[in-house]
Amino acid sequence: MFDFVRKHTRLFQFILLILILPSFAFVGMEGYTSMMGGANAGVATVNGRKITQAEWDNAQREQADRIRRQNPSVDAKLLDTPEVRRQALEGLVSERTLQAAAARQHFTPSPEAVNARFWADPQFAFLRNPDGTVNKGLLAAQGMTPSIFMERLRQDYGLRQVTGPVETSVTVGSSAPKLAFDSLLQQREVQLQRFDVKDFAAKLSPSDADIEAFYKEPANAAKFQLPESAQIQYVVLDLEALKKDVKFSEEDLRTYYKENESRYGVPEERRASHILIKAERSAPAEERAKAKAKAEEILA
After folding, report:
1. CB crowding 18-57: b at 16 or more within 10 Å, else e
2. What are the tens digits of pLDDT across the range 245-292?
């Protein structure tokens, strides 16, 4: 028996491979699928786009790294509390909400604008080398390449275009944003009871006197009054507008003028003036001669 196995070693290896490989493949693929399914499971949804468990874990890790850089002596247990994890998720939801607003308003900065901001912003000075290049070592320590960093910077620039006008126009207390954001994550149970008018109208039978007295009460009468209003219709006759649609020939104008000549003329009038040089007929001849000489002088 053992001689047979020893002589046919390659055959037995092939048989064992056939028996082992399916089991390994089944368990391995199932474990891989389970692992990836957990990482890709959605923990929240913003604008139809889900936030996965892996993204949440990564956000919490980045948040913990920032806290450690600011306070190296911080207790590691304080960085893995439910409150810290909730803050990381709130940050992701806020970021996705602003990204959706920026996309809706087409706030997409150009690569030139992003690059200019990187070289001008003092907060990125530690990432800039003296020779004008990006410090790839520091980026790699944070798990980023230059392209990933510039993409994040581009997104941040777009978000600032959304929040900038609000931040510069109004001063809001620290509690107001938290209350507004918490309201989005909270649920309320509401009980509603409907009161239908017809259910109560059947039980009432007011008399005409009761209705009239109710209506005459000043406080009640005001409920049935409307502000005074008027509907006015008017026609504007614009001479210039009418003239555009009316055209007359020269002959039409001449005929109309002749037919209405009296409207455009006035009766003939004469003005006369005279200078009277008085000389009575019974006056002496010498006096009449003087008067005649004066008249001739005036006419000359």
Report:
1. eeeeeeeeeeeeeeeeeeeeeeeeeebebeeeebbeebbe
2. 888 889 988 999 888 888 887 778 888 777 788 888 888 888 888 888
